[in-house]
Design goal:
Blueprint (H helix, E strand, L loop, with lengths): L1 E5 L20 E2 L2 E2 H11 L4 E6 L4 H4 L11 E6 L3 H11 L3 E5 L8 H6 L9 E4 L2 E4 L2 H10 L10 H16 L13 E2 L4 E3 L15 E3 L4 E2 L4 E2 L3 E3 L4 E2 L4 E3 L1 E3 L3 E3 L4 E3 L1 E3 L3 E4 L5 E3 L6 E3 L2
Parallel strand pairs: 1-4, 1-6, 4-5, 10-11, 11-14, 12-15, 13-16, 14-17, 15-18, 16-19, 17-20
Antiparallel strand pairs: 2-3, 6-8, 7-8, 9-10, 18-23, 20-21, 21-22
Length: 289
């Protein structure tokens, strides 16, 4: 069984962030989404994994390295080099387990990996993000396409809602591994503050909060429950955040009250109303730096 992680298609549903990256490299709390997938694959006995990249995504994806930190041997093929992919398919001589790099954090990976018939001559689609392919031509076509799960423009709101939920799922997981030596942490309220920025616990009124490194939080802002603030973000005076994810390097302007939102440097998406608003006023929402 050949295990392949598809990371060769640039993500498009957060256009102002990581335009050279597949969705799996988008940050979920303190690390790329795909790292959670790799951790769970390792827990389920996967020892080797090939990652499909492209000319566009290769640079960022290859920062994952050789996989030794997860106990998985990672190698890479560039699907924009026809001979490289063709040679890989020819030499593999077996069934393929193809996995999307942005597989949902809360998907039952162990069930997905153990319930498919490896000897079947038919493709087995057990999950929208994973498939088993036994025909080399079909496998090559799907690898070139770069995804098990086709993403349509009409699914934008669904994808943004899922991305917001994944951040809060990780943050609220009692078994998470966010604790890094030297980071201030309030165990009782499940609060994490990474080093290198200006963030005070006096601004945090709620529980389940993660504040990334190099953030700047004004002393008068109010951070309520279930908030993720990505690295390098700036939260200005009298801002209130509740059940909200602020993506890295985003400036949130004065006196904004954001609840149930996913916030980027160009837009705000409300996961309850499903409203997506592009912000043109840099005093409200903008990119830091």
């Amino acid at each position: 069984m050949i295990n392949m992680l598809l990371m060769n298609r640039p993500q498009t549903y957060i256009p102002d962030l990581y335009q050279d990256s597949p969705a799996g490299m988008l940050p979920v709390v303190d690390k790329p989404m795909v790292e959670y997938t790799l951790e769970r694959l390792a827990e389920n006995g996967i020892k080797a994994m090939t990652i499909a990249v492209s000319n566009i995504t290769s640079g960022r994806v290859k920062t994952l390295g050789d996989g030794i930190r997860w106990g998985i041997n990672l190698d890479y093929i560039n699907t924009d080099v026809p001979s490289e992919l063709a040679n890989y398919i020819e030499q593999s001589m077996g069934a393929f387990r193809l996995i999307d790099g942005d597989i949902a954090i809360d998907s039952p990976v162990n069930d997905m990996l153990t319930s498919a018939p490896e000897n079947s001559e038919q493709e087995s689609n057990l999950n929208p993000s994973l498939t088993y392919v036994h025909d080399a031509n079909s496998a090559e076509e799907m690898i070139r396409f770069g995804a098990v799960r086709a993403t349509m423009p009409s699914q934008l709101h669904e994808l943004l809602t899922r991305f917001h939920a994944q951040n809060l799922t990780v943050l609220n997981n009692p078994n998470n591994d966010l604790v890094i030596a030297g980071h201030p942490r309030d165990v009782e309220r499940n609060i994490y503050v990474q080093q290198g920025g200006n963030a005070s616990f006096k601004s945090i009124f709620g529980k389940n909060v993660f504040i990334g490194g190099l953030c700047d939080l004004h002393r008068s802002c109010q951070i309520q429950d279930n908030v993720v603030i990505g690295a390098g973000a700036v939260i200005d005076a009298e801002v209130s955040l509740d059940n909200t994810v602020v993506l890295p390097n985003t400036h949130v302007g004065e006196q904004l009250d954001l609840t149930n939102c996913l916030v980027s440097s160009e837009w705000v998406f409300n996961v309850v109303t499903q409203g997506l608003i592009k912000i043109s006023d840099a005093a409200l929402i903008s990119k830091t730096g």
